[in-house]
């Protein structure tokens, strides 16, 4: 699938809005992801308001692309939906990747901004959205039309990382 190979993190966007149908497709792609015991533990917050995007960009020193994005989608885990509690982050990871690939497919650029990777950022996101305790911050996907950067292939294949039948 060409989208897998061409996808890159796009961090600079034009001022063009992303069409509502495209945002809908990205959300549908997210919810199509596999999940442990089919628990589908995800929730999403769609942010398009420019002032809100600027404020949200401050939740992490590495989330600056949010400020210039046309739309950012926050991914959250809903503890009330957990059947396999240890699986929720993997489920959300699969949903995140689906969103990035669908964005490429739609001619957009996107970048995954880690939240669950830092306790400090988790708390910042929790406080920004005033989340109840059972809703767990996972990540942000900033999306827009690429400005300058392109989705283009970079070869990362490492034959030495592939093992056959046994480790050694
Ligand atoms: C869990 C995770 C967290 C990430 N967090 C950030 C981030 O906070 N800020 C950022 O600019 N990029 C972030 N990225 C994007 C990576 O930096 C990027 O995927 C990596 O450098 C490879 O580049 P590529 O996506 O262009 O192939 C994150 C990616 C993942 C999977």
From TrEMBL:
Signal peptide: none
GO molecular function: oxidoreductase activity
Alphabetically ordered keywords of this record: Flavoprotein, FMN, Oxidoreductase
One Pfam match: Nitroreductase
Protein name: Nitroreductase
Domain Nitroreductase: 5-59, 90-145
InterPro entries named in the record: Nitroreductase (IPR029479), Nitroreductase-like (IPR000415), Nitroreductase/BluB (IPR050627)
């Amino acid at each position: 699938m060409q989208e897998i190979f061409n996808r890159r993190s796009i961090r600079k966007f034009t001022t063009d809005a992303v069409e509502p149908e495209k945002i809908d497709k990205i959300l549908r792609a997210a919810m199509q992801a596999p999940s442990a015991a089919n628990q589908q533990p995800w929730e999403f917050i769609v942010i398009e308001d420019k002032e809100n995007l600027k404020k949200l960009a401050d939740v992490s020193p590495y989330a600056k692309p949010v400020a210039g994005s046309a739309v950012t989608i926050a991914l959250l885990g809903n503890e009330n939906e957990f059947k396999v509690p240890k699986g929720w982050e993997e489920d959300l990871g699969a949903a995140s990747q689906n969103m990035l690939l669908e964005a490429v497919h739609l001619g957009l650029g996107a970048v995954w901004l880690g939240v669950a990777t830092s306790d400090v950022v988790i708390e910042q996101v929790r406080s920004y959205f005033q989340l109840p305790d059972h809703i767990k911050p996972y990540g942000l996907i900033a999306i827009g039309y690429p400005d300058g950067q392109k989705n283009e292939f970079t070869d990362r294949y490492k034959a030495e990382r592939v093992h056959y039948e046994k480790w050694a």
